[in-house]
Write a structure and sequence with these properties.
By secondary structure, this protein is an alpha+beta fold. It folds into two domains: 3-67, Winged helix-like DNA-binding domain superfamily/Winged helix DNA-binding domain (Arc Repressor Mutant, subunit A, Orthogonal Bundle), CATH 1.10.10.10; 74-254, Chorismate lyase-like (Chorismate lyase, 3-Layer(aba) Sandwich), CATH 3.40.1410.10. Helix content is 31%, strand content 29%. The chain contains ten helices and ten strands. The strands form three sheets. A six-stranded antiparallel β-sheet has the order 4-5-6-9-8-7. The protein has a two-stranded antiparallel ribbon with strand order 1-2. β5 (138-148) and β6 form a beta hairpin. The chain is elongated and about 70 Å long. 23% of the residues are buried.
Length: 262
C-alpha cells in the first residue's frame, strides 16, 4: 500500500472514530499533518484528495479541509408507486400533507424548496418510440428540482414527459405555478381520466456530465444513477415518461419483491 493510501486510511479512521465531527476543520496541512505523518506536502495532499473523492472531506480553498456534513439520504423504493396510486384519489387536503419527496426523505413540505420549469418540445425518436407517436409530436417537458432548505443542491433532476395534446385537456396541467401538485403525476393523470396499470423503471449508473456534477454538487469519482420511469395506463398506453438523474453518493434504491408461497 502506498504511503498516501495509509495516511488516507488513518485519517478516515480518525474521522469515523469522532476525533473530528461533521463541519470540523482538520489540522493544517503543514506543519500539523505533514509533521504527524512524517511526510511531504504532495503525499499528504494525495491522501486528502482520496478523502475528497470519497465525499469524506471538503477542501475549501483558502480555508482548509473540513469533515463533510452528511447529505440528506434519499431512500427510493419500488413500493412508492402504489403509495402514490393509493393517494391519487384522496381529498386535496390529504394529498397536500405530503408528497413523494417527503415520502423518500422523511422531511416535511416546509423543509423543501421546489422548482418546476415547463416547456413544449418536439418528441425525439427515442421518446416518440415509447409513446408510439411520430417523431416531432408535441410533448410537455416538465423539469423538477427539489432541495432540502439546509442544502444548496437538489436531491435529483427529474424530467417528466407527457403528450402535449393529452395534457392540454386540463389547462391546469400546463401551469408550473401549480407545482408541487398535491398527489403528484398520478393525481394529474386521474384528473383527465387515466389510471396507471404499471410502472416500469430502467436503471443504469454512469459518470455525470459536467453540468450534472455542478448542479448536484458531486465530487470527483461519484457516479450518478440514471433512472427512466415509464408509466403505462390500464388501456395499454404509455402516458408518461420520466428521466431522473440521482446522485450516487446520497441515493439508496430499495426493491422489495413479494414472493408467492408454495
Amino acid at each position: 500500500m502506498a504511503k498516501y493510501e495509509k495516511i488516507a486510511d488513518d485519517l478516515r479512521a480518525r474521522i469515523r472514530a469522532g476525533e473530528w465531527g461533521p463541519g470540523d476543520r482538520l489540522p493544517a496541512e503543514t506543519p500539523d499533518l505533514t509533521g504527524q505523518y512524517q511526510t511531504s506536502l504532495p503525499t499528504l495532499r494525495q491522501a486528502l484528495a482520496v478523502l475528497v473523492a470519497e465525499g469524506v472531506v471538503d477542501k475549501m480553498h483558502g480555508r482548509g479541509n473540513f469533515v463533510r456534513k452528511p447529505r440528506k439520504l434519499v431512500v427510493r423504493t419500488n413500493e412508492r408507486h402504489q403509495w402514490e396510486k393509493d393517494r391519487a384519489r384522496q381529498p386535496e387536503e390529504t394529498r397536500r400533507q405530503t408528497g413523494a419527496t417527503e415520502h423518500d426523505t422523511g422531511l416535511t413540505v416546509l423543509d423543501l424548496v421546489f422548482k418546476a420549469e415547463f416547456r413544449r418540445i418536439e418528441a425525439p425518436e427515442s421518446l416518440a418510440g415509447l409513446f408510439a407517436v411520430p417523431a416531432g409530436t408535441g410533448l410537455l417537458e416538465r423539469t423538477y428540482r427539489t432541495r432540502y432548505r439546509e442544502e444548496r443542491e437538489p436531491f435529483n433532476v427529474a424530467r417528466s414527459y407527457l403528450l402535449y395534446d393529452m395534457a392540454e385537456a386540463s389547462p391546469e396541467l400546463l401551469d408550473p405555478s401549480r407545482e408541487p401538485w398535491p398527489g403528484g403525476t398520478q393525481n394529474q393523470l386521474f384528473t383527465i381520466g387515466i389510471e396507471l396499470d404499471r410502472v416500469e423503471e430502467r436503471i443504469t449508473a454512469r459518470p455525470p456530465t459536467i453540468e450534472e456534477a455542478d448542479e448536484l454538487g458531486l465530487k470527483a469519482g461519484v457516479s450518478v444513477i440514471a433512472l427512466r420511469k415509464i408509466s403505462h395506463s390500464t388501456d395499454g398506453r404509455v402516458v408518461e415518461v420520466s428521466d431522473v438523474v440521482l446522485p450516487g453518493d446520497r441515493t439508496e434504491l430499495v426493491f422489495t419483491t413479494p414472493l408467492s408461497r408454495w
